[in-house]
Amino acid sequence: MADHDDEAPATGSAVEKSEPQKISAGTAVIPTDPFENPGEPPHRLRITDKDPAEEKKAARQVSTLFFLSIIFSCLAVAAYIAFPIKEGDTGSIRLNNLFLGLGIALGLLSIGIGAVHWSKTLMPAQEITEMRHLTKGSDATRAKAAEVFELGNKESGFGRRSLIRNSLIGAMVAFVLPGVVIFRDLGPKVDPNVVLRHTLWKKGMHLTIDPTGTRIKASDVTLGSAFHVIPESLLKSDDLLEEKAKAAVLLMRLNPDDLHEPKGRENWQYNGIVAYSKICTHVGCPVALYEQQTHHLLCPCHQSTFDVTENCKVIFGPASRPLPQLPITVDADGYLVAQSDFHEPVGPSFWERDR
User: Could you tell me which InterPro entries the record lists for this protein (predicted)?
Assistant: First the structure.
């Protein structure tokens, strides 16, 4: 037993000398000997790098894809016109969406495939390694960045390959045409000044609660209260949402002594009850926040603020003009009614108007 114990250290030392030194890290054993950096793998030339004819062929293919994108974008516009949406006809909606979507999708797909094919076959494919470093906005850094962009232009051939460049520019220009046509068609078919100048309000039209359509008695409007109001005929309108977007009104009751009506509008309110358009004159958001103590109306979108005591003039925010006022009175039964329509166009001020 003694002889066996004496030989154990000798055996262990022999093993330690014959193996590389190791550091134990938990259950893993990590060798400390340095290893050699293998470097970049050998660069393999593409067929377009070897054969000029293949390079020209690839350039033609890229340009063809860009030209196809132009054709598909134009076809999308043509399909939008050739297959109009007819009211009540779901088949026309399906056809319009089908061919319009196919044209736009194929136009974008052609640009994407062309760009990928360009980078895969014609742009430089040499592998490089760059060390990470901190960037600073110095003059030298900006000059280097400009140099990199110039180098990228030369390597990509964007400035040299006029056929690819021009076809890509044409494809990008044509690709936005369907969007321009679609968004233009969403606009009003007539002069916005005419559309926004007239609403459903007219003489004798009852003010009703939104959305129930319940008529409002003047005696029910208490001091400091506010009502969201629509014209009584709105619920029977075929264009409910479009008309509501113009005719929505906010009704409030203040102390008559707090109101400072301009000349000619003294009779547009009834015993301190006033009605103003709910559509903000900035970009058309609903003005629905009423501060009872300050008598301010606040638009939640961009914080335009209107003073009800001063004919809803703008006291803060980007809105450029007061909210239009709806002249009101009461009928024989004490219900609130409109004296007329608004005397000026409602809605955002960016519409062109004949003032």
Answer: QcrA_N (IPR045603), Rieske_2Fe-2S (IPR017941), Rieske_2Fe-2S_sf (IPR036922), Rieske_Fe-S_prot (IPR014349)
pTM of the model: 0.52
Q: Say how far apart CA 207 and CA 205 lie, in whole Å.
A: 7
Query: What does the buried/exposed string (b/e) look like for 233-260 if buried means 16 or more CB atoms within 10 Å of the residue's CB?
Result: bbeeeeeeeebbbbbbbbbbbbeeeebe
User: Tell me: the pLDDT tens digits for 109-153?
Assistant: 999 999 999 999 998 887 777 766 665 667 787 888 888 888 877
Q: Which amino acid is at 293?
A: Q
Domain boundaries, the chain: 47-126+142-186, 193-338
193-338: CATH, from 3.40.50.300, 3.40.50.920, 1.20.1080.10, 2.102.10.10: 2.102.10.10
What CA–CA distances, in Å, run from 335 to 202, 313, 318, 331, 342?
A: 15, 27, 36, 6, 19
The count of C-alpha atoms lying within 13 angstroms of the C-alpha of 49, restricted to the half-sphere facing its C-beta, is 10
Give alpha helix (H) positions in 122-256: 139-156, 162-175, 177-186, 192-197, 240-247
State both tokens at 190.
């007539």
Please name the residues in contact with 149: beta carbons below 8 A apart, sequence gap of 6 or more. Answer: none
DSSP H or E segment with residue 117: helix 90-121
Using DSSP's 3-state secondary structure scheme, residue 138 falls into coil
Which percentage of the chain shows pLDDT scores above 90? 50
In this structure, which amino acid lies at residue 50? K
The distance from CA 275 to its chain's CA centroid, rounded to whole angstroms, is: 33
Could you tell me how many residues make up the chain? Answer: 355
Burial class (CB in 10 A: 0-12, 13-18, 19+), 133: exposed
CA 199, 205, 207: angle at the middle one, nearest 5?
95
Yes or no: say if 213 and 313 are a contact pair by the CB < 8 Å rule: no
Q: Distance (Å, rounded) from C-alpha 230 to C-alpha 246?
A: 10
